[in-house]
Amino acid sequence: MKQTSFASAEYAGKKRQTRRERFLAEMNTVVPWSRLEALIEPHYPKSGKVGRPPIGVPRMLRMYFLQQWYTLADEALEDALYDSQAMREFIGIDLGQESVPDATTLLKFRRLLEQHDLTAAILAEVNAHLSERGLLMRQGTVVDATIIAAPSSTKNEDGMRDPEMHQTKKGQQWHFGMKMHSGVDAESGLIHSVVCTAAHEADVVHVHELRHGGQESQVHGDSGYTGLDKREEVTAAQAEGRLRKDIDSHIAMKRGQIQAMPESPAKALFEWFERRKAQVRAIVEHPFLTIKNLFGYRKVSYRGIAKNEVRAKAQAALVNLYIARRRLMAQGVSARAA
């Protein structure tokens, strides 16, 4: 039997629970660990006769999720684990018995996820888990995109910006970075699709990749998606049967069109309709708010679109679990839900 250290015993006996502890306890309960570990296990290195044995998928997955929740670099997470008893308890590390896995181990695990596109599989598995519990309805999609900033400085070794990132103008301000395009379930507010591109690409170009497919009956979007029904990619997907043809598109009118209308009952009616559309579209801002303000994903972590898209899909899976956590806990979902 593993002996508990004095530090762990003292920590367990304290009277006040911190916000970090409450957050980690909730996420420990709602994450379907066994399902996600089973996705990674076939690709994870097996223990050999020579050298140090692998840390194990359960601990590495928990370390990776901590990194996403708290926006920490590999070395910063290693330091945080030495500093925070709550984080060590979440992973299951007792410093009296063992050391914290180093930053290089986490780096190799991240590369494993990138190599096999496992964060896309994690997002799909999380959504399957939520669908089985009636939390992902799949009747309508709200499409939108948010800008994730990238370093615009050229004061680096190469003397240049990331060539895969670009700038775009939003309102009266220029932004440099990438766009995280997301398809969000119109009923539950959960992300079901993610595509990342350079910031200057038009939102409407990737709308066919953000939809539920043959199951949805409605699609909602702001004025950046004007003309989506006529897009060649959409019509091709409909001809192939990947998208339904009888979908109601609720796309916002351009603001200038309404402002140009003369004051009349007709203009008031159009404004009323636009407010109703905006109320439906507002649900897409909830996951973006959580990703940027709670998880701190405001800036890209790596060079290139591909690496950052891997992280964006992991963020989408985790934000879905966070948004649905209270409903999952109300259903009595266990930490090892199958």
- Taken from the alpha-carbon principal axes, the silhouette is globular
Average pLDDT level: 88
Structural class call reads alpha/beta
Query: Distance N terminus to C terminus?
Result: 27 Å
What is the number of beta strands? 6
- The ordered H/E elements are HHHHHHHHEEEEEHEHHHHH
Task: Classify the beta-strand content into a percent band.
Answer: 5-15%
Provide the gyration radius in Å.
Answer: 23 Å
Q: What summary fits the major beta sheet? A: 6 strands, mixed
Helix content: 40-55%
**How many structural domains?**
2
How would you explain this protein's 3D organization?
This protein has 338 residues and is an alpha/beta fold. It folds into two domains: 17-115, no CATH class; 138-312. The protein is 45% helix and 13% strand. The protein is built from 14 helices and six strands. Strands 1, 2, 3, 4, 5 and 6 form a six-stranded mixed sheet that branches. A hairpin with a 5-residue loop joins strand 3 (173-185) and strand 4. Helix 3 packs antiparallel against helix 8 (118-132), helix 5 (74-83) crosses helix 6 (85-91) and helix 5 (74-83) crosses helix 7 (103-115). The chain is globular, with a radius of gyration of 23 Å. 33% of the residues are buried.
